[in-house]
Write a structure and sequence with these properties.
homodimer; alpha/beta; TIM Barrel; 8-stranded parallel barrel; two-stranded antiparallel ribbon; 11 helices
Chain lengths: 272, 272
């Protein structure tokens, strides 16, 4: 049984709720942290949202998400860098110490090219992020997203990218959904921890069978991922941060979100 | 432009056709090889199907598919070994020198346990396969199938399993669809070739966006996989066998299969 002092929930998990309702409901339920998705901010002042988070007794854990640095067109890459600099400013204003990066891929070019552009893109924002007190967390995504979302599919690849960039504020977000299948993941998580680069830990579960590539994630304990094992590995590797529940699920988004929040908390207590 | 002397098609690619029609149509179109799926054999005498293949001037390339060795229940594993021994006999009768193995996974247990059971299962059939002149090709499957279909998700994992089993007739089937995203794949294909274990090469393409986890494979050239690059890598690694077109696609299965066969051949000539 986990207590709730390290439970964080992503606004995208309870997507039907506005960020204001999410803050209120998470706080009332005893959740400790919130990761804010940029679409939940829309026209709001991030500093005001940050104050509301702290006033509710919550901590802003991360801003999701920057990235998408890879593109065939140079102009698209330039705009991505600008957009990521805006995300860094938003995170700083919000008081979130981390921006999670879904690094991108462009199916019109080789993955190696996308990876080189990712290194360049992160390199173009890391100094400004450091000045702003913001860390950047490269999130390896499941290989089923290698066509359009992330040329970084494994912990090994994320570690290699971080080695290449070699900036103290550039590290990795570990999400069990993306890496559970990989026999190299435990060793690469340890490598990541040893380098001081374990910046975030996301949990959910892999539903069996999975009906949709994007929107059929499961609650912890419903699927086949041994979440407590990965929690143990990240914590043995030095991670002391939040356990962030990030679930995209049309079936859960169609539920009453208060009931769903109860289920999330129950699943977190028993299965993380 | 590739000529057709090394083009092989899987019966599952033109699934609406019976094996008899597939043989006739492939031969008429100048295709050189056929890989027979076990469901296409159903009640038929495999030796008779083998004669029909050779009489049509085709070569039987592989039998698809054995495997599914991993299971929580011991009795299920025992039955899987029996079923695989039947597959070996069928391949021998058919005159197909290779049985492709989709090794299995059981989401009710750790992947490591499934992998150990796979080693045991292959170990239980490899000697009989050798006597029958049949090679066994472990096919690593895309990580999106790690829940129920294959605990072997990468070339590295397939090579490791083969090292562990260490039988001359146990090797690997490389399918671009499953491994294209993996930065380690080229080096692991070379490792596989150096060990004399490259037994099969399957091609198709990854559609962008992919609408279904199973049945939305694309023709070569339609998606984002650099198929000629992988052909070059396997051939530089010593592979001299067929290029096998294996496409599961509800959209292509709903087409007139003769027109589809023309498209396959066109895509093969230009994109492999």
């Amino acid at each position: 049984m986990s207590d709730l002092s390290r439970l964080c929930i992503h606004t995208a998990t309870t997507k039907p709720w506005s960020v204001e309702i999410a803050i209120e409901q998470y706080a009332r339920a005893g959740v400790a942290g919130i990761t804010v998705w940029r679409d939940a901010l829309s026209d709001r002042d991030p500093a005001a949202v940050g104050r509301r988070i702290r006033d509710a007794g919550l901590e802003a854990v991360s801003l999701c998400r920057g990235g998408f640095f890879a593109a065939v067109e140079r102009e698209t890459r330039r705009r991505a860098v600008e957009e990521n600099l805006r995300a860094v400013e938003e995170a700083a204003a919000l008081g979130a110490p981390v921006v999670v990066l879904v690094c991108g891929a462009d199916s019109g070019q080789a993955l190696e090219t996308s990876r080189r552009q990712i290194v360049e893109g992160i390199g173009a924002i890391s100094a400004r992020a450091r000045e702003a007190g913001v860390r950047l967390a490269v999130e390896p995504l499941h290989p089923m997203y290698a066509d359009e979302k992330s040329a970084i599919s494994t912990m090994q690849s994320a570690n290699d990218i971080c080695d290449e960039i070699s900036a103290q504020n550039v590290g990795v977000a570990v999400d069990v959904y993306h890496i559970w299948w990989d026999p190299n993941a435990p060793a690469e998580i340890r490598r990541c921890g040893a380098a001081g680069r374990l910046f975030a830990f996301h949990v959910c579960d892999w539903r069996v069978p999975t009906g949709d590539l994007l929107l059929d994630r499961a609650l912890m304990g419903e699927g086949c991922i041994d979440v407590p094992r990965f929690r143990r590995i990240v914590e043995e590797s030095g991670f002391e941060g939040y356990h962030e529940v990030e679930i995209f699920s049309t079936r859960y988004w169609s539920m009453d979100q208060s009931n769903y929040l109860d289920q999330i908390i129950e699943a977190y207590r028993r299965q993380v």
